[in-house]
Amino acid sequence: MSASPIPPQPRRSPLFSRYSDLGAKLTSFSGWEMPLQFQGIRQEHQAVRQQVGVFDISHMGKFILRGGNPLEALDPLVPSDLSRLKPGKARYTLLLNPEGGILDDLIVYCQADDEVVLIVNAATRERDHDWLQAHLPETTHLSDRSDSQVLLALQGQLAQSVLQPLVDTNLAQLSVFNHCQTEIFGHPAFIARTGYTGEDGFEIMLPPEAGLHLWDYLLEREAVPCGLGARDTLRLEAALPLYGQDMNEETTPLEAGLDWLVHLKRKGDFIGRSILEHQAAEGWPRQLVGIAMLGRSIARHDYSLWHEGTSVGYVTSGAPSPTLGINIALGYVPPGLSHPGQALEVEIRGKRHPAEVVKTPFYRRG
Which fold would CATH assign to domain 285-366? Predict the structure, then answer.
């Protein structure tokens, strides 16, 4: 009898030792051993909404495109028009397959005319790399810096005041979805005014040694360490979709409510365009919507959605909202049932519980 294969060891961030020091509760996520929570999901969630929190997101994929015209090379692979993206600016967009399905969502940061940074999801890092490598021209070189850089997300209304003393750049002049190169503790650092929480904040990429120092510095200045649990409830309140859960390669951007990323009139051909053109003209079979439970029940991933005795869709994400004090969810229903106020039911352990479609985002910062 052959021996059972040894499971691969989980990947760990350069900050892993800090998790143990803080007594973090760990979880497996896309092959990584990551903190689920430190003090508790609710406390960490509220820290970001009311003050400032810091997340280690070093598991995210970090690519650099150099040579030729990287934006021009990338443009046929995404549905968004990249031609107007200038150095210092960023755009959220999608990689699509020929069927119009979403291979991944990513942020494109234009560093210079001949250099672009891409931040992609951890679960799709290798697949994204291979897809890009297969479709980019030889004049554009793709490099993967995922394992050589720490990525921290400092999020919350106090993020700017906490980070500003470390850098010469005037962060007040760094608008949302803008970014810059600077130095932190004598090391080169990339700072972007982006995030995944619905709050103001920054994502900071720098070498591991400086990343460890930065983590310690931020905690000394009362930034609250946050795990994946709070990251999930924060992004859900802001109705920010999670790849692999709210969308995947079987989902088109129009179905996922990401039609604002599809620029059919502004750009030429791109992978998946014909499918999206057809859907834009003829309609699509399902729509991602926001859902509010009308009682204390909690909708969870894969729970079925019902209307007038018929199963009509399913929940993709769901959780209690610490900010709003209600239970919220995202899910797919037919377009005819996607209007705010539409009554639905969520089946939970064989019983159906009342809910309704609501406008998203559930939470928008003041």
Answer: Elongation Factor Tu (Ef-tu); domain 3 (2.40.30)
